[in-house]
# Entry
Amino acid sequence: MIDTHCHLDATRFDPDRHEVLDRAWAAGLHGILVPGVGPENWEPLLAMSRAEPRLQVGLGIHPQLLPDLPPEQDEEHLERLDALLARGGAIAVGECGLDGPSAAGAPMERQVAVLKRHLELARKHGLPVLMHCFRAHPALIELFKQEPLPEAGVLMHSYGGGADLARFYIQKGCYFSFAGPVTWAEARKPLDALRVIPPDRLMAETDAPDQAPTPHRGQRSEPGYLPRVIEGMARVLGEPVEALAQRTTENARRLFREAFPPPSL
# Structure
């Protein structure tokens, strides 16, 4: 199994990161994708990946971080991101995207401009994009209608936009990853979306330390909980857990161009 979105560098893992990883490998994971969210963590993430090949990284600027970054430095940060991607070591661009609640501190116009540059860099470097979209789907759809998407693909992370929106993103060639909310009792929209997504576009994640699946909801999530997410997805799809685990793993390895070593290594 591959966790396609886990913030392993989050401070909530500082006390026991090694134990968290031990539990993940023991749970059957053989790969974790750690998305960068801002300029300060790009270099540490690259170092983390060099030290452990089962940990791969994306590099990007999360829209929720934009209110804390001076707008006049956006281009400087993006030029540095371009240089780091050219150097190699990252398997994706992101986490990046649009965030409705962050518009008070980072207007949507700025968010869209920064996201456009991420898409440009993904096209330039031949990398897929880790896409965040929360309460901002109209703006993202408008951008996707205007902007060419990277040939390497766009992964809609922790998708919760419902089936109708999913159909638009499917038509655009996007991939989809689901997290702990598919196991929550009140879940509706992500389950409806899950049922319409083509089997070869589907992946799983924990979004740890957030969005812990049942029965850990409300606690810190961790990558070792990925089997619970896959169990929840399998229940909705009416598929054997083992078959879905294998398929989501194969899909992740294909999207990320075999960046993760096979389990035997």
Observations:
- The radius of gyration is 17 Å.
- The mean pLDDT is 97.
